[in-house]
Amino acid sequence: xxxxxxxxxxxxxxxxxxxxxSRRTGSCEGGACxxxxxxxxxxxxxxxxxxxxxxxxxxxxxxxxxxxxxETETYYILSGNGMYDxxxxxxxxxAGDVFFCKDGDGHGIKNTGAEDLTFVALILKK
Length: 126
Known about the structure:
Helix content: under 10%
Order of helices and strands: HEEHEEEEEEEE
């Protein structure tokens, strides 16, 4: 299943109220690709934070490689196993790992495990 490009989601993300939402922002085999829970609403995010969310990727789901311009993104892995794409370099991802994508670079992540891959995602504006 091919889902909506993550860039479209990032560009259209408006913050809003805290709630769970399913987004088809990557590719996966069956079902919704991603569940995202906003941890702060737009007012709480302030002027420098674009997103602070808990993201869950089901097995075989991925957020494909995408670039960040005018912002950075950090992933803190809470549970599960996967592969992190750091500008085309594959790195194993497991609970406790932190990955940082600087302004102008690209990244992505795929759940390669049998359980959900859950992480906190933080996007800061430059």
